[in-house]
Amino acid sequence: MLNDPMVLAPVAEAMRVEPEKRIRDRGATEKAILKAAKSLLAEEGFQNFGINAVARRAGCDKQLIYRYYGGLNGLVEAIGADLGTWVKDRIPEDTGGMFLLTYGDLMERLSLLFLEALRDDPLVRRIVAWEVSENTEQVRRLSEARSKALANWLDRMRGSLTPPKGVDVVAVNAILIAAIQHLVLSASAGGQCAGLALKTPKDWEKAATALKRIVRGVYG
After folding, report:
1. 75 domain residue, yes or no
2. How many Cβ atoms are within 10 Å of 134's Cβ, its own excluded?
3. Is residue 38 located within the same domain as residue 89?
4. Which GO terms describe its molecular function (predicted)?
5. Which end of the chain has the least Cβ crowding within 10 Å, N or C?
6. CA distance 18 to 98
7. Contact assessment for residue 215 and residue 107, using Cβ atoms and an 8 Å cutoff
8. Residue 164 per-residue DSSP state
């Protein structure tokens, strides 16, 4: 009976199909794990961020996290790499119909896009908050990945555009980014920043207008 071709044929066929199924499933499983890790990190922070918690949220065996990502550190690296994609997706390199004739045009566009992107992403807001409150290796990895992606965007978009002479670009841009980050974090925490309400679309239009004026005041 065990050697009956009628029995062995279906088994052999199943064995041929199964590897293909695993290959197809691996990509979906990796995406599910990464998505679960990002959502868990955004909601709970690193305090409750662990292999077991990620596996539960992803609905998979924790051994798959070790197999596909090499463990928790590898998963953090993957999230960091994903932040580069975040910049590409949320801060597009097309000009949106706007002609970038000056460095001020470029910084105005970057500032407004970054403001909007940060408002829409709870995980990146978390990372920004951690940058000033937690000096851990994991936070540094995520912070460096985000900062590098933004710097690369600016380098690619800048082309031949140059800032006005005498302007300390590194200092000014750092302050602009810091101001945007603080506005968004303050809005998330209390709906306002230094007396400026940040709850309604009209409130955010007012903030965006002020931001543009600051950029133009420095860069023209």
Report:
1. no
2. 14
3. no
4. DNA-binding transcription factor activity; transcription cis-regulatory region binding
5. N
6. 52
7. yes
8. P
Domain-located, residue 35 = yes
C-alpha–C-alpha distance, residues 185 and 191, integer Å: 9
pLDDT over 70, % of the chain = 85
Residue in 146, 130, 113 with CA at minimum distance from that of residue 49: 130
| Greatest CA separation for the chain | 89
Helices 137-158/122-131 angle, 10° precision: 110
Q: Shortest CA distance to 188 belongs to which of 106, 120, 134?
A: 120
Asked if residue 91 and residue 56 are part of one domain, the reply reads no
CB 51 within 8 A of CB 67: no
Region 115-125: mean pLDDT is 90
Whether residue 199 is predicted with pLDDT greater than 70 in this model: the reply is yes
Taking phi over 0 as left and psi of -120 to 50 as alpha, with beta for the rest, 208 belongs to alpha
Within a domain: 77: no
Residues 6+ apart with CB under 8 A from 37: 49, 54, 57, 58, 75, 78, 79
**Alpha-carbon dihedral angle through residues 165, 168, 172, 177, given to the nearest 10 degrees:** 110
pLDDT digits (tens, 9 = 90+) for 32-72: 999 999 999 888 888 888 999 999 999 999 999 999 999 99
Residues 199, 121 share a domain:
yes
Check which CATH number belongs to the domain holding 44 and give it. Answer: 1.10.10.60
pTM of the model: 0.75
